[in-house]
Amino acid sequence: MSNFLALLITFFLLLSSCHRTIKSPAPKYAALPQLSKNLAVCESEEQQIEVYWGYVKQWFYWRHALPDTMPDADNIESLIAQIKDYARQDKWTQVNPLSHYQQLIQGHSYKSLGLKVGLSEDKSALVVLDIFSDSAARSSSRESIARGDNIIFVNDRQIAHWLATDKQGLQAIFSSLPDTTNAQVTLEWLDQQGNLHRGQFTPSTIRPSSIRASQTLTLNDQTVGYLAYDSFDLPSITELNRLFVAFKKQQVKELIVDLRYNGGGTASVANHLASLIAGSQVQGKVFNRKSHNPSKAYGDISTEFLTLASNSTLNLTRLFVLTTQRTASASELLINSLKPFIQVITIGQTTAGKPIGMQVSQLCQQVFFTSTHLNVNAEGQGHFFNGIPPTCEVQDQAQYAYGDKDDPFVQKVQNYISNNSCDRQNQSQE
């Protein structure tokens, strides 16, 4: 399921009333809006193209950039590519198989190498960012891959060669795979000491957990909670509730939410996490406002933060968020929505820059993610197409375990707790 860029998704419920504020219900699975109830449409790709074009002409956020007549397109993918050519700011509108959507949002198990990777700065290697517990790369008795290792060959081909000749093929190897896939993948990688390793791995069944790590740290005599969070998906809500009850019992006074590799997910889950963090600080206040194109302004709504059980809400006045260029969508929504009410200190790199929300809809066996609205916070802020810049800048080397006190990201947090500064306070010599 992991690609170089995670799928960026935010749920949006199609509403047909004037702009208003709504109380947020508990997040739950919702049936996808159907773009057509005519089953005959599924027999003709030409008709599917026409149906989707009619939908986009109404709801697409950059509707004004589209031509009056439908462009020539041989398939849905070609139509979407042309739509994005007309609206250059749109990087996100896409279509995926229904099965892919179910795996992504509902947390179903899937077959994969179980590695989350990113491209190195010089584009010569894949940097291992995370390894899922079910990954064959973790459980191999002979060779094991670690976070921060650099994969330089895949099936005896250099990464640069893959990128030049078959980028999609390389992405597919590290994505979710058909259940029948049992072909071994040969990897060569350099560990952090520069030692070369080679191993063969068979894709295994991965049962993903969005909470990659959690613990409490003692920084400057403060009890600090730490949460590494991978995706805003609905199954993680139960885990989040349990974790925050534990944080509350441990009297956590500061919190680090590590969103370095979190490419997004469901907006309602971002609201849930934000409400656990800030509690009484945000109760009854606006979490997010959705702004559509002028022809669909009646669909504009404001959503309030959730009112959650007092034994799980931390009521914090300050939050530390770890970010990279992979921090996107619902991750940015969480940061932006809390900023009017509590201090949000971002540590790391400028985020991806996706303030656009997606309408998720279904047509036959395909699920469409269409850019339909702009997300803004209670103060109307949200036009961060160039990303959210960090309060304290740190380059991610992916060489430390999650929550390691020696990690420069965590050290920046410690500095800030100590002296409200990104840098360690200079000590004068007596």
Question: Could you explain how this protein is built, in words?
Answer:
The protein is an alpha+beta fold and 430 residues long. Among the domains are: 110-206, Pdz3 Domain; 211-358 and 373-419, 2-enoyl-CoA Hydratase, Chain A, domain 1 (Alpha-Beta Complex). Helix content is 23%, strand content 25%. It has ten helices and 20 strands. The chain has helices spanning 45-59, 76-86, 98-106, 136-139, 159-165, 167-173, 236-249, 267-278, 330-338, 408-419, and strands at residues 20-22, 94-97, 110-112, 115-119, 126-131, 150-154, 157-158, 185-190, 196-201, 204-206, 211-219, 222-229, 254-258, 286-291, 301-304, 318-323, 343-348, 356-363, 366-376, 392-393. The strands form four sheets. Strands 1, 2, 14, 15, 18 and 19 form a six-stranded mixed β-sheet that branches. Strands 4, 5, 6, 7, 8 and 9 form a six-stranded antiparallel β-sheet that branches. Helix 5 packs across helix 6 (167-173) and helix 8 runs parallel beside helix 9 (330-338). The longest helix is centred in the first third of the chain and has 15 residues, at 45-59. The protein starts with 19 loop residues before the first strand and ends in an 11-residue tail after the last helix. This is S41 family peptidase. InterPro entries: ClpP/crotonase-like_dom_sf, PDZ_sf, Tail-specific_protease. It holds the Pfam family Peptidase_S41.
Write the layout of secondary structure elements.
Blueprint: E1 20-22, H1 45-59, H2 76-86, E2 94-97, H3 98-106, E3 110-112, E4 115-119, E5 126-131, H4 136-139, E6 150-154, E7 157-158, H5 159-165, H6 167-173, E8 185-190, E9 196-201, E10 204-206, E11 211-219, E12 222-229, H7 236-249, E13 254-258, H8 267-278, E14 286-291, E15 301-304, E16 318-323, H9 330-338, E17 343-348, E18 356-363, E19 366-376, E20 392-393, H10 408-419
Parallel strand pairs: 1-15, 12-13, 13-16, 16-17, 17-20
Antiparallel strand pairs: 2-19, 3-10, 4-5, 5-6, 6-7, 6-8, 8-9, 11-12, 14-15, 14-19, 18-19
